[in-house]
């Protein structure tokens, strides 16, 4: 009974989240992806929904069930993820880019399956850089003031230094850093929040616990902004 009267920190807010890996085709049956499981993004979607938000989850390929009450849009490639996000960004209060978006796609992807040649050379793949979804959303924010943008950074070393620099470079108010090989596919993680005041460590815990802490931090920052 008491719980139903508790203030939900994201009540009435619309939250758009990307999660999971992307898949970049080489040919109709092959592609390049990464080790993101989607668990952290899905946990954040669930936590934001619990906090009263209307949540849209743009998801790369994962094996996870859709969190209760969350609208989910499935995509494969970074380009599809970019298009789905840009089509849905208007009217959003918060954007959280959790997806491990491929930085490059195959420029010379084949329409037909590549065939092995007896004694022949392996295929030469060429790459082209994908659009930065978070940067595209942050550019819309600089016009309207919305959505409040949260980025993620999976590093393999120098997390504190790289995280702070990445937040500045991306021009976003909040960036969540973690060590990629400590989080991909794991049920637990530890994260570092970077904002204009410096960084705060959220110690190792299961991803839903961290997701709820992050949602509460985002909610507090939205309240401060509207004062
Ligand atoms: N991101 C994105 N679109 C891309 C690449 C990254 O939206 N094409 C988002 C990720 O979802 C994440 C943030 O940008 O929220 C940071 O991603 P990351 O890979 O750490 O940063 P990059 O700028 O791509 O730098 P690098 O991979 O070289 O460290
Ligand atoms: Ca990247």
Automatic annotation (TrEMBL):
Which residues does the annotation say bind CTP? 103, 113, 152, 166, 170
Q: Which GO terms describe its molecular function?
A: phosphopantothenate--cysteine ligase activity; phosphopantothenoylcysteine decarboxylase activity
Every copy of the DNA/pantothenate metabolism flavoprotein C-terminal domain together lies at 10-219
Cofactor or coenzyme needed: Mg(2+); FMN
Keywords from the named record: Decarboxylase, Flavoprotein, FMN, Ligase, Lyase, Magnesium, Metal-binding, Multifunctional enzyme
EC number(s) reported in the record: 4.1.1.36, 6.3.2.5
Please write the reaction equations for the catalytic activity of this protein.
Answer: N-[(R)-4-phosphopantothenoyl]-L-cysteine + H(+) = (R)-4'-phosphopantetheine + CO2; (R)-4'-phosphopantothenate + L-cysteine + CTP = N-[(R)-4-phosphopantothenoyl]-L-cysteine + CMP + diphosphate + H(+)
State the source organism's domain of life. Answer: Bacteria
UniProt pathway annotation: Cofactor biosynthesis; coenzyme A biosynthesis; CoA from (R)-pantothenate: step 3/5; Cofactor biosynthesis; coenzyme A biosynthesis; CoA from (R)-pantothenate: step 2/5
Annotated region Phosphopantothenate--cysteine ligase: the residues are 15-227
Q: Quote the record's cofactor note.
A: Binds 1 FMN per subunit.
Similarity remark:
In the C-terminal section; belongs to the PPC synthetase family. In the N-terminal section; belongs to the HFCD (homo-oligomeric flavin containing Cys decarboxylase) superfamily.
What is the recorded function of this protein according to its Swiss-Prot or TrEMBL entry? Catalyzes two steps in the biosynthesis of coenzyme A. In the first step cysteine is conjugated to 4'-phosphopantothenate to form 4-phosphopantothenoylcysteine, in the latter compound is decarboxylated to form 4'-phosphopantotheine.
Q: What is this protein called?
A: Coenzyme A biosynthesis bifunctional protein CoaBC
